[in-house]
UniProtKB/TrEMBL annotation:
Molecular function GO terms recorded: hydrolase activity
Family: Belongs to the peptidase C40 family.
SUPFAM superfamilies: Cysteine proteinases (SSF54001)
Cross-referenced Pfam families: NLPC_P60, SH3_16
Keywords carried by this UniProt record: Hydrolase, Protease, Thiol protease
Cross-referenced Gene3D superfamilies: endopeptidase domain like (from Nostoc punctiforme)
Protein name as catalogued: Cell wall-associated NlpC family hydrolase
Length: 290
């Protein structure tokens, strides 16, 4: 029996054998449960649709994000990312042992493409772990050119910004990822896909953004007339093809994570649209943010 035939499995907390308690009466399942909010404690954790390391990655959770756990099985945790509502399985080892507490609520986010946590405030110390852009950290205070994290480690202060001080240019954030490899399901500076690049850039600017390109295409900003000439596009406009999204960089270029080069790259705007059309996919949606 399928528990949720009419719901998007990517954002619905229901499986054939289990559903979240708040969905009781909305979806049918043999058992229900309540969730516990936990924090991601690894640099990144792959979220999959099945509890199997051989299953492809749907997305990734980065350090400090909240993942609400509803079910656990053989070292896996099933639940939902709080920020973009994506549902799936994470390795339980990537999560805090107990519930997320307010005492360690994030105060800052990582704004550099990648940085390190050091055991002492010194660049010569062997780093404890890397952190990627968008990671959320709880800072107790300054320590010279570093920020001291609550209970552990130090981060170079210039690589972080207060949670309540968002960026103001999504394209500038995306440009920090130039040359990063394309990775299906990836969402970090080690590799990311087209919609993750857009999501990460918008979230850094304090804007909510769903994870996948079809979700973004249906919800973000204002839809422009598909016949809008390329010359009328603005920096930060979003271009959508079936299964792909790019950001307009300026009057002549776009930036995207693409399987064409297997990197985040800048490409001529007209040339990119023509190249993708020649490959069999025409530009179908333009959306403007703000």
């Amino acid at each position: 029996m399928t528990a949720h035939p009419t719901h998007d499995r990517r954002t619905t907390l229901a499986r054939p054998d289990f559903a979240a308690e708040h969905l009781r009466g909305l979806v049918e399942a043999p058992r229900y449960g309540r969730g516990e909010r936990r924090r991601v404690v690894e640099t990144a954790a792959a979220l999959r649709r099945e509890p199997d390391f051989a299953t492809s990655i749907d997305t990734e959770a980065v350090f400090g994000e909240i993942f609400t756990v509803y079910d656990e099985m053989e070292g896996w945790a099933w639940g939902q990312l709080e920020r973009d509502l994506y549902v799936g399985w994470l390795s339980a080892n990537a999560l805090s042992a107990g519930a997320a507490d307010d005492a360690h609520a994030p105060t800052h986010r990582i704004r550099a493409q990648r940085t390190f946590v050091y055991p002492v405030p010194s660049i010569k110390a062997p780093p404890m772990m890397p952190l990627t852009l968008g990671s959320a950290i709880a800072v107790s205070g300054p320590s010279g050119p570093f920020l001291a994290l609550k209970d552990w480690g130090f981060v170079f202060a210039e690589h972080a910004a207060p949670i309540d001080a968002p960026e103001d240019d999504p394209v500038a954030v995306a440009e920090r990822f130039l040359g990063v490899p394309y990775l299906w399901g990836g969402r970090t500076s080690l590799g990311l896909d087209c919609s993750a690049l857009v999501q990460t850039a918008l979230q850094a600017c304090g804007l909510d953004c769903p994870r996948d390109s079809d979700m973004q295409e249906g919800t973000l900003g204002e839809a422009l007339d598909p016949a809008t000439p390329l010359s009328a596009l603005r920096r930060g406009d979003l271009l959508f093809w079936k299964g792909h999204v790019a950001l307009v960089r300026d009057a002549d270029t776009l930036i995207h994570a693409t399987g064409h080069s297997m990197t985040v790259m800048v490409e001529g705007l007209a040339e990119g649209v023509a190249r993708i059309a020649a490959a069999g996919s025409t530009l179908r949606t333009i959306r403007r943010i703000g």
